[in-house]
Design goal:
Length: 59
């Protein structure tokens, strides 16, 4: 679960709850609002790639 520190639609505490409800998920907070893939594109992409590569390594 990637969330934005300044997200008013899905505040960080909601992102953390979402991540806790999904087996194997973790919460990552970026310096962004609701559109972190746009507002913090490099950080978002890096976190996504880290997750995907980690998942691939375990299968």
């Amino acid at each position: 679960m990637i969330g934005g520190k300044f997200d008013k639609s899905t505040p960080p505490e909601h992102g953390e709850l979402i991540a806790k409800s999904i087996p194997g998920a973790r919460y990552v907070e970026l310096h962004a609002a609701h559109l972190s893939n746009w507002e913090a594109a490099q950080a978002f992409t890096q976190q996504l790639l880290n997750f995907l590569l980690n998942q691939h390594a375990h299968h």
